Amino acid sequence: MSNKKSVPVVNKHGLSRTIPTEVKRTVRRQDGYGCVICGKMLVDYEHIDPLFCDALEHHPDHIALLCSEHHDEVTRRILPKRIVKESKANPYCKKRGFANSSYFPHPEDIKIKCGNSYFEDTKKIIEINGKPIIWIEEEEGRVLFNAVFYDSEGNKIGYLNRNTFFALVGNCDVYAVASRIEARLKQGTINLTLDIKADGIVELKRLSSNYGGTKVIIDNKGRIEIDNHGSKITMDSCQIFNCGGALSIGEIPKYKGDFFALSKFQKEKLKGNLPKIVDFFGTAKGYIFYSEIIDLHGLTSGYFKESKVYNLLGEYIGDLVKAESEDLFTIETDSDEYEDREPIYIEKRNRIANRVFRKKIMDTSYRILN
Ligand SMILES: [Zn+2]
User: Of these four, 72, 117, 149, 157, which has the most CB atoms within 10 Å of its CB?
Assistant: First the structure.
């Protein structure tokens, strides 16, 4: 009895159509995890030179990642192989630093599943050390999912930026299969499994991430384990509804610097003369002391170089912008994403307040001053 399903497809040289896993991994790394032409993450592995029918082996140098659209164009001979070869030598994703994949969730079903726990109508899902890393936005009736993913060594893997997934071209092997995205730092370790189906449920199935020393793990049983510098909590089958901010772990990194070491009298005297940092409503949030950003309690929580503000982990937070009349400064960005496409969490009020008056409109001081 023959088994029709598993008849091996081979070419005239007896080469199987199945490309070995290791070869695929090398192709992904060479091509930057997306279509060599347009950067989309849902790809086919296409023999370019020679074509599969003439190929003697599966060699990564002769295989390119192509999205279904560009694969189809090659098959129909609209897109010349020459251009695919040129793009293989200089892939789109490597030029711009990321691959991407878009989603179209249903606006009425705002649901995030992390392991076996559900978050419904919850805007901020997880915040670590003062930085929201998973959150939901709504814009003109559309639901926008956002997340910043780190691997277990603290490097960024990629972002979900308003429903588009961006895989950073780095150390992680990232690939998309149908609605699922997986990222692995080393063979055998899963750093991220994300599934976004058309019905609007974003499912974070597996995670092994580390941001500033705080680890968030979603294990193979669906439990969420949080390890904040040794203090651990585990969440199993939780259901969280209608909550402004769900899980907030750790605090904004700060330390007792030179300002803190001053006497109470000196501090009080200095505070009156130091330039102030305010939010968009004029509320005092901290001070500038030499090149340091000081919070209201005198702790150092960041620094700046050439008007660019960084937190203690060295992450760029925003620009230091001087108000016109007084010795007041704000910390702002002119976009809701950073240059590498990392989405920035912005409270609605901080987004709208200055839209009318100024070009720069996002207050990001919440990241270092609370
Ligand atoms: Zn493409």
Answer: 149
